[in-house]
C-alpha cells in the first residue's frame, strides 16, 4: 500500500543499451543535427523539422512505454536522453507538438475532463486546487515547463486495460465492490506510483467501467460486470454486501488470531508440566479452553455471514438466469408472431396438393410416350418358359463355388489306363537313379492324392 507522502518519479539516466536507434552511437553528424533546436516555424525548413520530429516523437513515447510509466516531464526526458554531456534542445517543441496532436495531455486538463464527484479525495495527492490553476495557465498553453506533468493518452488507456484485467483475474472480482486500499495493493506491480494509480482509476471512470464512493470514511470502488458493460451507480445492496464482506474478513482474521493464542496456551501448559508446575499448567489449559469457546462462537458468526453471502450470490445468479429466460421468451414471441396452427395446416395441405400434382405429371410423362415399343405379354411368357426348360436340361459348366472349380482342376484325371500309369512310374523310377519297378507286384489303380 502506498503512503500519500511517497512520490515516485520516472527513472532517469538514459535508456538501457541496445534500445536506442543505431545512429545514436554510429552517426555523429546526424546526432548533432537531431540534438540542435528546432527553427521558430516549420515553414522555415519543413524537411529538417519533420526529420527531427519523426525521430524524437516516437522515441519519447516508446521510452515511456518501456519504463512502464504514463506520466512524463520535460526534465526527466532531458536527463534520460543525455548524450556525451549534451541534452536535446528541441524536446520542449516535441512535447508541444504531441500536445497539439492529442497524444499527450496535461495532467490537470485530463483530470478536469473527467466528470467525477470523487476527485476531492485525491486533492491531497495531486495538490491541485482548483484543478485548472496550474503553472501552464500562468505561462500560456504554448510553453511546457520542465516540471509540468504530462500524460501519455494511449499509454494510460493501455494501463487502464491492464488494471481491469488484473482485477477480473483476481479473487476480488467475486463481487463488483472492493476497497480502494485492496485494489491499490493488487495494482502495485502495474502502477509504479500512487499518482499513476489514481490516473488509471480516472481513465476507467471516463470509460464508465468503474465508479468510486466514500462510505464511512473508506473509499470503495465498483467495477462493471463485463468487459463491455457500463458500471451502474453504487446502491444500498452493493454497500450491504461490501459490509458483509468486510465483516467476513474481520471475523476470519480474529479466528486466526485466537487460534494462534490457543496454541500458545497449549505450549505453555506443556512446558509447565515438564517443569512440574501443575497449577500453572492447569491455568494455561483453562485459558486455552476459554479461547477455543470464543473461536467456536466466532465460527458460528462467520458461518452465518458466509451463508448470507452465498444466498446473495445465488440470488444474483438466479436473477441473471431469469433475465436470460425472459429475453428468450420475448425473442420466441417475436419470432412466432405471425405463425398460427391454421396457417401451418393450410401450408401442409398446399404442399400435399403440389406433391400429388407432381406425381400425376410424372405418371403421365412415363406412360404417355412408348416410341412404338409395344410387346405382347403372352409371347414374352412363352419365351421365358423355354429358357427355363433349357436351363434345367443343360448342366452349368461353371461351379457355384470358385474354390470347388479350383479343386477339380488341380486333381489328376482318374480315367488314365493302368498301362499308362505303369509306364509313367517306370520313367520316374529310372530317373531317380537305378530304382527298378517290380514286375511281380499286382497292378492296382492309383488314387489321386490331394
From TrEMBL:
Record localization: Cytoplasm; Nucleus envelope
Biased composition (Low complexity): 10-22
GO cellular component, one term: cytosol
Chain segments annotated as coiled-coil in the UniProt record: 248-275
Taxonomy, superkingdom: Eukaryota
Family recorded in the similarity comment: Belongs to the SNF7 family.
Residues covered by region (Disordered): 1-22, 392-411, 430-450
UniProt cross-references to PANTHER family, sorted A to Z: CHARGED MULTIVESICULAR BODY PROTEIN, CHARGED MULTIVESICULAR BODY PROTEIN 7
Compositional bias per record (Basic and acidic residues), positions renumbered to this chain: 392-407
Listed InterPro entries: CHMP7_WHD, Snf7_fam
Spans through the membrane: none
Keywords: Coiled coil, Cytoplasm, Nucleus, Protein transport, Transport
Annotated GO biological process: autophagosome maturation; exit from mitosis; late endosome to lysosome transport; late endosome to vacuole transport via multivesicular body sorting pathway; midbody abscission; mitotic metaphase chromosome alignment; nuclear membrane reassembly; plasma membrane repair
Domain CHMP7 winged helix: 156-224
Descriptive protein name: Charged multivesicular body protein 7
Amino acid at each position: 500500500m502506498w503512503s500519500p507522502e511517497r512520490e515516485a518519479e520516472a527513472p532517469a539516466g538514459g535508456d538501457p543499451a541496445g534500445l536506442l536507434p543505431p545512429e545514436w552511437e554510429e552517426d555523429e553528424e546526424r546526432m548533432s543535427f537531431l540534438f540542435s533546436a528546432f527553427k521558430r516555424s516549420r515553414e522555415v525548413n519543413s524537411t529538417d523539422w519533420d526529420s527531427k520530429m519523426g525521430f524524437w516523437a516516437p522515441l519519447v513515447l516508446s521510452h515511456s512505454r518501456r519504463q512502464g510509466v504514463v506520466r512524463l516531464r520535460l526534465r526527466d526526458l532531458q536527463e534520460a536522453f543525455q548524450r556525451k554531456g549534451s541534452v536535446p534542445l528541441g524536446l520542449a517543441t516535441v512535447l508541444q507538438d504531441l500536445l497539439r496532436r492529442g497524444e499527450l495531455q496535461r495532467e490537470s486538463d485530463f483530470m478536469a475532463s473527467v466528470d467525477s464527484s470523487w476527485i476531492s479525495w485525491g486533492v491531497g495527492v495531486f495538490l491541485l486546487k482548483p484543478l485548472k490553476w496550474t503553472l501552464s495557465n500562468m505561462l500560456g498553453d504554448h510553453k511546457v515547463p520542465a516540471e509540468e506533468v504530462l500524460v501519455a493518452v494511449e499509454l494510460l488507456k493501455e494501463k487502464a486495460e491492464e488494471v481491469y484485467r488484473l482485477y477480473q483475474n483476481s479473487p476480488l472480482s467475486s463481487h463488483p465492490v472492493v476497497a480502494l486500499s485492496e485494489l491499490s495493493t493488487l495494482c502495485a506491480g502495474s502502477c509504479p506510483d500512487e499518482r499513476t494509480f489514481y490516473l488509471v482509476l480516472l481513465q476507467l471512470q471516463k470509460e464508465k467501467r468503474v465508479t468510486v464512493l466514500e462510505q464511512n470514511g473508506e473509499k470503495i470502488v465498483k467495477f462493471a460486470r463485463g468487459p463491455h458493460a457500463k458500471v451502474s451507480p453504487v446502491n444500498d445492496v452493493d454497500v450491504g454486501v461490501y459490509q458483509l464482506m468486510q465483516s467476513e474478513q474481520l471475523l476470519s482474521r480474529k479466528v486466526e488470531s485466537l487460534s494462534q493464542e490457543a496454541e500458545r496456551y497449549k505450549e505453555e501448559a506443556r512446558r509447565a508440566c515438564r517443569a512440574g508446575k501443575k497449577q500453572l499448567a492447569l491455568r494455561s489449559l483453562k485459558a486455552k479452553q476459554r479461547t477455543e469457546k470464543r473461536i467456536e462462537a466466532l465460527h458460528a458468526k462467520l458461518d452465518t455471514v458466509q451463508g448470507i453471502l452465498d444466498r446473495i450470490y445465488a440470488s444474483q445468479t438466479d436473477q441473471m438466469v431469469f433475465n436470460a429466460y425472459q429475453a428468450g421468451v420475448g425473442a420466441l414471441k417475436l419470432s412466432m408472431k405471425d405463425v398460427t396452427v391454421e396457417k401451418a395446416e393450410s401450408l401442409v395441405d398446399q404442399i400435399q396438393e403440389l406433391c400429388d400434382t407432381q406425381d400425376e405429371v410424372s405418371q403421365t410423362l412415363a406412360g404417355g410416350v412408348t416410341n412404338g415399343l409395344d410387346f405382347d405379354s403372352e409371347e414374352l411368357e412363352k419365351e421365358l418358359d423355354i429358357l427355363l426348360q433349357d436351363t434345367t436340361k443343360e448342366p452349368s459348366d461353371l461351379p457355384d463355388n470358385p474354390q470347388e472349380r479350383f479343386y477339380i482342376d488341380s486333381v489328376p484325371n482318374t480315367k488314365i489306363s493302368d498301362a499308362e500309369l505303369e509306364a509313367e512310374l517306370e520313367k520316374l523310377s529310372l530317373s531317380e537313379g537305378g530304382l527298378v519297378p517290380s514286375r511281380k507286384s499286382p497292378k492296382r489303380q492309383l488314387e489321386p492324392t490331394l
